[in-house]
Amino acid sequence: MQSLTEENYLKSIYGLAQKPAEKITPTALAASMCVNAASVVDMIKKLTDKKLINYDKHKGVKLTTLGSKIAIDIVRKHRLWEVFLADKLGYSWDVVHDIAEQLEHTKHQELANRLDKFLGYPEFDPHGDPIPNAHGQLPATANVLLSEIEAGKTCQVTAVKDTSAVFLQYLEQLSVGIRTKLKVIEKIAFDGSMIIQIGKANRTTVSKKFAENLFVA
Amino acid sequence: MQSLTEENYLKSIYGLAQKPAEKITPTALAASMCVNAASVVDMIKKLTDKKLINYDKHKGVKLTTLGSKIAIDIVRKHRLWEVFLADKLGYSWDVVHDIAEQLEHTKHQELANRLDKFLGYPEFDPHGDPIPNAHGQLPATANVLLSEIEAGKTCQVTAVKDTSAVFLQYLEQLSVGIRTKLKVIEKIAFDGSMIIQIGKANRTTVSKKFAENLFVA
DNA sequence: AATATAAATTAGGGTAGTCTAATTATATAT
DNA sequence: ATATATAATTAGACTACCCTAATTTATATT
């Protein structure tokens, strides 16, 4: 059994691991947990002893199979509670996260499954993030290309079609990774290029070829 | 803001205060919290400093107005979550308590009210315990006498009609107090006496006169 | 009233999780 | 290749909550 704090670390590590290519250093984890790096070093020791993570100076922190299972379970509960708060209690999507943080640590093996059933087995939370099912599997995200998204819509990167180094490097340069949120601002009729907003800040124009190689949901 | 532990102490004190006449000593509180009396003494100091309780060697522990408000709020949340778990997720009444213990500490001023509305403003939880409303008021419990309860039904003592010392002493002797749960096993047609189960264990026969002097809900 | 028992309190210590400050290791730049 | 900056780690300390053991204070019994 893990403490609330340990669970929050696992969740944080899981979250950081969604942006691959970035290794999870004590400093990165400290920033994401809003604690001092010294505290993180202590916790890394503890979670390593409990076989929930592996830590290698060069590779950074990685969840073990068990650690990953626990983290996914917390994420599942978090997102299900978000759906509950939004769908049943009428909360807006910007509020649900903080409340769900408090509900996600409830321990009772059946609870998440009952809640899931009650909510009608939702696949995505109010932010569009996928909800792991009872087996920890994420819903298969439809193979929609960025190029098919209409102007004004928001979506989220789920995968890349072209996996060449040059494309991945380009993505990195644009700070686009798995789960990055994109908003299509405008589609240029002339050549199919798109003006998109990446995350919260940067607005960029990308080519038709670019948009045809990025899967979104 | 109080910690989770502080909240649990307040809740426990509130619960013990429901059985009046019994003063809340450090030992009683220790038993109810399943901790050592020494720990309770520490917490009494802390809660006193925070002006949530008053402690007098002779009168025992009492909640201040503020402490009482907080305790009632936790009880409200606890019981609302119990209703949610039973009504919406199909849990049986013997399971909901432990899960609700984990949900009751969720902090968000509006949450309880939204949940209350969603559940249709229930007045009693699955155990028959009254749910405080948004203003901390308990629902007016109907003036039903034990004698009016049908065989097989379970109810809970809400008040006494006859307040004479002999009656109260008799109640004490039977371990019947406010909030004690009673189950009517059988009603004897001949003289109106009743076989009732008191709490979990004792089964006793009580007279018609007895049953006509106890209010239940 | 004196004594035995029980309750309350104090003293001192443990664990989990946090911090700051100091140190060591690693990466970067000249 | 060495100096510098950044990251990782260690040392030591703090708070919240809990404990045991010893002591003091009440309560009951004879």
Name a few traits of the molecule.
homodimer, 217 residues, alpha+beta, Arc Repressor Mutant, subunit A, SH3 type barrels, six-stranded antiparallel β-sheet, two-stranded antiparallel ribbon, 8 helices, 42% helix, 17% strand, DNA-binding
Unreliable stretches of chain A? none
CATH class of the domain at 144-216 in chain A: Mainly Beta
Q: Architecture of the domain at 144-216 in chain A, according to CATH?
A: Roll
Cα separation of the termini of chain A: 35 Å
Number of strands of chain A: 8
> How large, in whole angstroms, is the Cα Rg of chain A?
19 Å
Helix content of chain A: 40-55%
- Helix count of chain A? 8
CATH superfamily of the domain at 144-216 in chain A: Ferrous iron transport protein A (FeoA)
String of helices and strands of chain A: HHHEEHHHEEHEEEHE
CATH-defined topology of the domain at 144-216 in chain A: SH3 type barrels
**How are the strands ordered across the major sheet of chain A?**
3-8-4-5-6-7
- Overall pLDDT score of chain A: 91
Tertiary shape of chain A: globular
Strand content of chain A: 15-25%
Largest interface here, residues on each chain? A-B, 16 and 16 residues
Layout of SSEs?
The structure is a homodimer of 217-residue chains.
Chain A: H1 4-17, H2 26-33, H3 37-49, E1 53-56, E2 60-63, H4 65-88, H5 93-103, H6 111-118, E3 144-145, E4 154-160, H7 165-173, E5 181-187, E6 194-198, E7 203-206, H8 208-211, E8 214-216
Antiparallel strand pairs in A: 1-2, 3-8, 4-5, 4-8, 5-6, 6-7
Helix pairs in contact in A: 1-2, 1-4, 2-3, 4-5
The structure holds a DNA duplex (30 and 30 nucleotides).
